[in-house]
Design goal:
Layout: H1 2-5, E1 21-23, H2 24-28, H3 32-44, E2 47-51, H4 56-70, H5 74-78, E3 90-92, E4 109-114, H6 115-120, H7 131-135, H8 137-162, H9 169-173, E5 183-189, E6 198-201, E7 207-212, E8 217-220, E9 228-229, E10 237-241, H10 243-248, E11 257-260, E12 270-277, E13 284-286, H11 293-300, E14 308-312, H12 313-324, H13 332-337
Parallel strand pairs: 1-2
Antiparallel strand pairs: 2-10, 3-4, 4-5, 5-12, 6-11, 7-10, 7-12, 8-9, 8-11, 13-14
Helix pairs in contact: 4-8
Length: about 350
Amino acid sequence: MPGLTATAPFPDDVPVHPLPVIDYERLQQWDSREVARLWDASTEQGFWYLKNHGVDCEVNDMFDMGAETLDLPLEEKMRFEQGDNGDSFGYKAKGTIQTDANGTRDNVEFLNIAQDDALSWPHPTHRTYPSTVNARMNDTIIPFVRKSMEVNMTILSIFERQLGLPRGELMRLHSTEGPGGSEARCIKTPSNQSTAGVGAHTDFGTLTFLHNRLGGLQVMPPGSQRWLYIKPLPGHAVCNIGDALSIFSGGILRSALHRAAPGGQSRFERYSVAFFTRPRNSVVLRHLGQNSDVIAHAVAKAPGGEFDTGTTSAEWVARRIRKLRLKNRQGPETWYASLGTEHIGRTTGGV
């Protein structure tokens, strides 16, 4: 199964976007050169590879758990379907969301497991999950969630200092003192697909920690109208900035446009594992310029209100998910209502 074992070579005839490789061990040591490289990557393109993150064993186990769960009969999986009201946690069947303004159906299925549910196990905070998830909660899912949280919180602590924020400010917005939207995701893309698995989007939350073994992820670099593939590198995660962090920073940190699309490996079934860090549900998405001269200076150059959404993190995520669901589609306007920060600092011709 190449999607799990990466036996299929990456094609050499597709356009590839080179990403900087950031060493997590050096970030933990606050190596000034590595911190500067992370800062350049996050402010210029919003994507980077992360090596030496120390989550490899847990990632391998998550691939196995995800494959086992997503191979369950559809009837069983649908008992845990996330529905059409904007809920993120649970199972998403393929063909249930739109990938563009024309209403083209997606072709991926995935399972989202709430960080809150992992940390409160065996007592659910948000919902229950299939038996294959419950059986692997202690030895697979909880260790993956905890280590992924540690990686993303380390990166956020670096961004705090670079943005001139008080120590612990970003941590406070992502604390576990109240419910939040952070989640682990296992994704399955069927073989022989000719359309986009997931449409062009920016991520809903703060930071994404992605692990894939076959290609299919494309980015549109800032200032470009061309889609380029990101080549998977063994042992390397792909990380990117999401909407919340872009808003908190007044646009200094870039939430990059990306999508899942068929490529030279599309004849194979493909799996991916991701962890999404999102703020607490009650956090209002607005810039933090009141606590940082660096951010205040950036906001002063932006159109008024661009980095003050007036909505909470929970409302932001629910609106984006709800508007993507095909059962809620009323026309192209529904697709545009699902967008996040895609419009900020970009033209929309490639979306």
